[in-house]
Design goal:
The chain is an alpha+beta fold and about 650 residues long. About 45% of the residues lie in helices and about 15% in strands. It contains 30 helices and 19 strands. Strands 2-3-1-9-8-10 form a 6-stranded antiparallel beta sheet. The mean pLDDT is about 95.
Length: about 650
Amino acid sequence: MCGIAGIWKSSGTADSDLLRQMIGAIRHRGPDGAGVYTDREAGLAHARLSIIDIAGGSQPMHTADKSIWITFNGEIFNYIELRDELIEKGHRFSTRSDTEVILHLYQEEGEKCVERFNGQWAFAIWDSPRRKLFLSRDRIGIRPLFYTRTADAFLFASEIKALLACPSVQPQLDLEALDQIFTFWVTLPPRTAFRNIEQLPPGHSLVLEEGRVRVYDYWRLKLEPVANGSSERKLTDELLALLMDATRIRLRSDVPVGAYLSGGLDSTFITALAKQAAGDRLSTFSIGFEDAALDEGAFQQQASSFLGTQHSIVRCTHDDIAAAFADVVWHAEQPILRTAPVPLFLLSRLVRDSGFKVVLTGEGADELIGGYDIFKETKIRQFWAQRPESSWRPLLLKRLYPYMDGIQRQSPVYLKRFFQVTPDDFNSPFFSHLPRWRLTSRLKAFLSEEARAEMRSFDAMTKLETTLPGSFSDLTHFNQAEYLEAKLLLPGYILSSQGDRVTMAHAVEGRYPFLDHRVVEFARKLPSHLKMKVLDQKYLLKRAAHGLIPESIRRRHKQPYRAPDARSFFVSRPNYLDDLLSTKRIKRDGLFDASAVSQLVRKFRSGSETSVADNMALVGILSTELLIDRFISRKGTI
C-alpha cells in the first residue's frame, strides 16, 4: 500500500520538483521509499510501503522498453495466477511484484485489464506511445484517488493534501458537499469536501487523451436478489469456500500479516480463516475502552484464547480522543460527525509499533450480509406501517437499541414521532434511512444565516435520487437499505475516515476478505431472508461460522462499534478547543452561527444531558473548523 501522485500538463513540461512536493505531502502512506518519473507533459510520483517483492518492487515502474509507466497504490491479490497466465502468453517479468503484472496485463488487454483484478487499487498508467493517462480505482472504493484541473494541468493523488501542495490549487470548502455530509455523513462522488477537487468513484476508470477527460464505470454494485433453488446448506458451503479463498489470497505478503479482532462475529470469523490458512500463530489487535458499555474486551480475549492468537490491546480514553482528534481530521480530509475514527487511528499505530504493516479486518459483512441495526429497524418500521395506530409495535425499537440510553429513556410518544411511518415516508426510496438522515440534518440548524441562504438551493436527497439505478424502486425496503449502506456509507466513511485514512496514517495496509468482489457478487444475489431471518442478523454467515469460532460469539447480539462521544473534549480540554469554538473564530469563518455554537458548548461544559444529535453537532462543527484551520487558513503548513 502506498501513496501516488501525478501531473499532466497541457503546455510545457511536468515539473519534477512539484511532483516531489506532492508526494512529500503524503509520505506517511509510503515511508519505505519514493520515486519520480517525468516524460515531457506527464509525470508520476510514488511513496512506497513495501509489502510484496521488497527488493524489486520500487516505483514508478516501467515495461522493459520503458514505453509504459505506472504508479500504483494497493494490492492485486490474484497476481500470481495472472502472472502465470501472462508467462504462458510470452510475457517476461523482471520482478516478483503485482505492480509489474498490472503493466503486462495492460499491454495485453488495455483498459479492460481492471476487470481481471481481484484486489484493492488506485493506480495511474502513463502510456507514452499513445500519450494517454489511464487511472483506475477498485470496485468497492477501498483505495482513494482524487484529481483536479488547473489552467494548464490535470493533477491526481491518493490524498487531497498532495493536490494542495500545488500552488495553483486553492482550497475552498464546497457548501453543497457539506450539505451532503450533514445529511448522509458522506459526499456523493465525485464531489469531495473541497470545491473543484473530485474523487474517482469506486468501480470507475478515467482516461485523459489530448486534453479530454473521460470517466466511466467498469463495474456496478447491484443488490438484486435472484431466485435461487440452492439449499441453505449448499449456499452456506459456497459462502464459506469463497471466504476461505478470499482470506487465503489476502495473506499473500512478504511481510507478516496480522488481524483486527473486535470480539464480534465478522473479525473473529476472518481471524479463524486466516489462522486456518496460515497454519502458524497469528497476531491480533483490538481496542479497549474504559466505559464498560463500549468495551468488548471479554469477547476479544475469548476469541483470542479460542483461536490461539498473540493478542495486543490499545486502550482508548477520553483524553486519547481529544489528543488525536485533530490529526484524524487532517488525515480524513473531510468533516466527521463522530469520534469513532480516533480509536482506529490509535489501533493502527499499535499495529505499526508492533512491527506489522498489514492487517486483515472484518469490514463489509454488515453492509452485504444483513448485519446493521438499520436493516432491523427497517423491517420493524415496515411491520409497524401495517398497523400505524399500534401503541406497542414502536416499542420493538427499544429492544432493537438496548445499548442506546437515549432511546431507552424516551417515551412511546417520542418513539412514534421519531420513527413514524407516514404514507409519504413509506413510499420514499429512502424509507429505511429517513430517521437517520433527518437526525443528522439537525446539524444544519447550527449554520449561519449566510450559509443557510447559500445552501437553500441544494437538496441532498433529491440529488441522491438522480443517481439511483432504474431498478432501485423494484427492490424491497430491506434491499434498498443494503444498497444505500454499501454505496454510500461503506466507501465514503467506513473505508475512508474509519479505514484507509487512519490505517495509512501509520503506514498500515488494511485487507478486507468480505470485500473480495466474488463474495460481494455472491452476497448481492442472496435472498434477504438468508441475510436476516426475521430479526436474526447475518443468518447465513453465522451458519458458515459454525464450529470455527466460539459459540458465544457466533450467537451474541451485535454490538455496534462506538467510541467515547463529544464529552471527551470537555474532560481533557485540548488546547485547540477553546480557540476553534470561540465566538471570534466562528464569526470569522462565517460557516456556523456563533450564538448557537456557544449555547451548545455551554451545554457540554455544564455537564447537562446531551443527545445523539448534540454529539453529532459538536463533533461535526469542531471537525469542520479543524478542516478550515488546517487546510484553508494555513495552507502553507500542510
